[in-house]
């Protein structure tokens, strides 16, 4: 898909509420996100962090939020535009030198993303696990 990086214009909050002004395929994703129970991100690690495309998609999800803030767990976070958000999951392919610290840093960043979108992370797994293990854990969430 053609998904451009956010340009930080905030038009999705001010000029075209809930709609990004960039003409690409992200609108196809945005219109379906809140109609699902689970949103799974999948990406390889690159230089110790998840691929930059994941961050691009996360930033382009800003139209799902309102410009207003509310206090959540002692921190200010934006209010959901549509009142709900799916649970989140992440499947990653580690690099040969990925260690537990790399995994924990990425998990912490993804947990913060979930908090910002009033969601929870139901799993954060390496593809080193078997498909049956991932399916079992996904079904049991």
Q: How many individual domains?
A: 1
- How much strand? 25-35%
CATH-scheme architecture: 3-Layer(aba) Sandwich
- Read across the widest sheet, the strand sequence of neighbours is 2-1-5-6
What is the H level of CATH, i.e. the homologous superfamily? Flavodoxin domain
The CATH topology is what?
Rossmann fold
Please bin the fraction of helical residues: 25-40%
The best one-word shape is globular
CATH class: Alpha Beta
Low-confidence stretches: none
Secondary-structure element series: HHEEHEEEHEH
Determine the structural class based on helices, strands and strand pairing.
alpha/beta
Radius of gyration: 16 Å
- In angstroms, what separates the terminal alpha carbons? 29 Å
The biggest sheet, with number of strands, parallel, antiparallel or mixed sense and barrel status, is: 4 strands, mixed
Q: Report the count of strand segments.
A: 6
| Number of distinct helices | 5
Whole-number average pLDDT? Answer: 91
């Amino acid at each position: 898909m053609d998904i451009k990086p956010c340009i930080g214009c905030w038009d999705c909050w001010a000029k075209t509420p809930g709609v990004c002004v960039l003409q690409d395929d992200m609108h196809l994703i945005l219109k379906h996100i809140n109609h699902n129970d689970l949103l799974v991100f999948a990406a390889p690690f690159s230089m110790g962090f998840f691929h930059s495309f994941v961050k691009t998609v996360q930033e382009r999800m800003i139209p799902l939020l309102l410009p207003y803030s509310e206090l959540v767990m002692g921190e200010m976070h934006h209010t959901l535009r549509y009142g709900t958000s799916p649970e989140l999951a992440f499947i990653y392919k580690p690099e040969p030198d990925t260690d537990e610290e790399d995994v924990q840093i990425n998990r912490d960043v993804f947990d913060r993303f979930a908090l910002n979108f009033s969601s929870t992370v139901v799993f954060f797994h390496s593809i080193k696990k078997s498909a049956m293990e991932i399916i079992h854990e996904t079904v049991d969430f």
